[in-house]
């Protein structure tokens, strides 16, 4: 019978097989390695998601870099009446524009109009921010490559300034300091500062020249002068290009009917006389209140120099074009002709075709009798002259915008989103 059991002729070796000769991996270590890779991928994805959601995460855009042949202008207060018209002019002339506005006085509707008119990438952007927050302001300057700043942002009602002066010193003087500090930190070379004839107060001589002493008589004018002083003191040791434009009473609107003046209802009492005239013509208020009929003028009412907003923004653009490193330019922006309040009211009646009821009341605190400019310097140095000097025509153009925007920019916004 055949025996199938093998017998060992030599003793079994006690040596074990070396591990390096094994042809398989430890399953526990393999799973651990895969888990680490998976965890790293998850953490990386979470970090990217958090960065994208963070306000500090801003991928590079056309606004964040300087581009040869393109001037990037920051327009503070660009959603407001004058600022929006200035932004429109800059965009029309192929500037790159960033508006910063907290919309306390401005209109988002005006911003949307600009967005519709200039939708091309890298042309226009709006940033909702308050210039009173220094941290936010410096962040905006760090994330955008500005070549110039047009600083319009300000509360700007004389009567309101007498009631709440601290608001004016904070909003005008302090905020201008913050903007100037951010410009200096980031090396922005040009500032066009929107100032006012209110810094002159009530001069003894007319017309007002740039050499007329600045003796403001209300907090609005004082706050603006303080801001000017800060800018000029800074400039003594700076190579910044600086233009200060002191302008007079602004009226009118975009001749093509795209932009206009739409103050908030609660501010109508403090607003411009043109707004009050239009409100009276529309029946929003029962009549027009003329404050002060005993001034030392021909008809007893205040005399002002009314400058059309189209001319005003033209002056700002020319100031930007003429700005030079290390140079300061200070200019009055007006027509050189004074008109009384009574003249203005009659022109408004004719422009609107409405027999506006007028109530004559005592003087308003902080007002002055007569103010009009001598525009010789700006004509000679910037080649600027007011063109829209027909008071009735300027009011007629503004009235057309008012009639087609009975709810301010609300109608434009509804059309844009439909």
Strand order of the largest sheet: 3-2-1-4-5-6-11
Spell the H/E element sequence. Answer: HEHEHEHEHHEHEEHEEEHEEHEHHH
Helical residue percent band: 40-55%
**Helix/strand-derived class?**
alpha/beta
The whole-angstrom Rg is 33 Å
Q: Which sheet architecture does the biggest sheet show?
A: 7 strands, parallel
User: What does the overall shape look like?
Assistant: globular
Low-confidence stretches: 1-24, 411-418
How much strand?
5-15%
What's the overall average pLDDT, rounded?
88
Distance between the termini: 104 Å
Q: Helix count, per DSSP?
A: 13
Could you give the count of β-strands? 13
Report on this structure.
The protein has 13 helices and 13 strands. It has helices at residues 27-53, 81-92, 108-117, 134-143, 158-163, 165-186, 219-235, 273-282, 309-322, 341-352, 376-382, 391-404, 410-417, and strands at 72-76, 96-101, 124-128, 148-151, 190-196, 241-247, 249-251, 288-291, 303-304, 306-308, 328-333, 339-340, 358-361. It has a seven-stranded parallel β-sheet, with helices on both faces. A two-stranded parallel sheet has the order 7-10. Strands 8-13 form a two-stranded parallel sheet. The longest helix has 27 residues, at 27-53. Mean pLDDT is 88; it is low at 1-24 and 411-418.
SSE layout and pairing:
Elements: H1 27-53, E1 72-76, H2 81-92, E2 96-101, H3 108-117, E3 124-128, H4 134-143, E4 148-151, H5 158-163, H6 165-186, E5 190-196, H7 219-235, E6 241-247, E7 249-251, H8 273-282, E8 288-291, E9 303-304, E10 306-308, H9 309-322, E11 328-333, E12 339-340, H10 341-352, E13 358-361, H11 376-382, H12 391-404, H13 410-417
Parallel strand pairs: 1-2, 1-4, 2-3, 4-5, 5-6, 6-11, 7-10, 8-13
Antiparallel strand pairs: 9-12
Helix pairs in contact: 2-9, 3-13, 4-6, 6-7, 8-10, 10-12
Pfam family, one: GDP_Man_Dehyd
Family: Belongs to the NAD(P)-dependent epimerase/dehydratase family.
Keywords: Carbohydrate metabolism, Isomerase, Membrane, NAD, Transmembrane, Transmembrane helix
């Amino acid at each position: 019978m055949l025996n199938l059991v093998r017998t060992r002729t030599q003793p079994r070796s006690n040596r074990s097989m070396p591990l390096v000769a094994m042809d398989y991996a430890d399953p526990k270590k393999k799973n651990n390695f895969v888990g680490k890779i998976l965890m790293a991928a998850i953490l990386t994805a979470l970090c990217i998601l958090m960065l994208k959601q963070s306000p500090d995460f801003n991928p590079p855009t056309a606004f964040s870099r300087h581009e040869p042949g393109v001037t990037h202008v920051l327009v503070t207060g660009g959603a407001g009446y004058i600022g929006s018209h200035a932004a429109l002019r800059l965009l029309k002339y192929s500037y790159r524009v960033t508006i910063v506005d907290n919309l306390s006085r401005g209109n988002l509707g005006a911003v949307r109009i600009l967005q519709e008119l200039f939708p091309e990438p890298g042309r226009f952007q709006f940033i909702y921010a308050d210039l009173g927050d220094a941290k936010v302001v410096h962040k905006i300057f760090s994330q955008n490559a500005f070549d110039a700043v047009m600083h319009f942002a300000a509360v700007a009602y004389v009567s309101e300034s007498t009631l709440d002066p601290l608001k004016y010193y904070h909003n005008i003087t302090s905020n201008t300091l913050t903007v100037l500090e951010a410009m200096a930190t980031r090396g922005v070379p040009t500032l066009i500062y929107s100032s006012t004839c209110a810094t002159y107060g009530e001069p003894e001589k007319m017309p007002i020249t740039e050499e007329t002493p600045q003796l403001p008589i209300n907090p609005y004018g004082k706050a603006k002068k303080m801001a000017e002083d800060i800018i000029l003191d800074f400039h003594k040791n700076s190579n910044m290009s600086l233009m200060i434009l002191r302008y007079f009473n602004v009226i009118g609107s975009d001749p093509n009917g795209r932009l206009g003046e739409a103050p908030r209802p609660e501010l109508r009492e403090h607003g411009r006389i043109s707004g009050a005239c239009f409100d009276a013509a529309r029946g929003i208020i029962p009549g027009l209140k003329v404050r002060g009929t005993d001034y030392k003028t021909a008809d007893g009412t205040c005399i002002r120099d009314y400058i059309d907003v189209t001319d005003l923004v033209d002056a700002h653009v020319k100031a930007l074009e003429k700005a030079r490193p290390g140079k300061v330019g200070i200019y009055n922006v007006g027509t050189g002709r004074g008109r009384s309040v009574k003249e203005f009211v009659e022109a408004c009646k004719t422009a609107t075709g409405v027999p506006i009821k007028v109530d004559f009341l005592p003087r308003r605190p902080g007002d002055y009798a007569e103010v009009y400019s001598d525009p010789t310097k700006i004509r000679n140095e910037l080649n600027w002259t007011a063109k829209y000097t027909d008071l009735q025509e300027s009011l007629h153009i503004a009235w057309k915008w008012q009639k087609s925007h009975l709810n301010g920019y609300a109608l434009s916004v509804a059309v844009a989103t439909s």
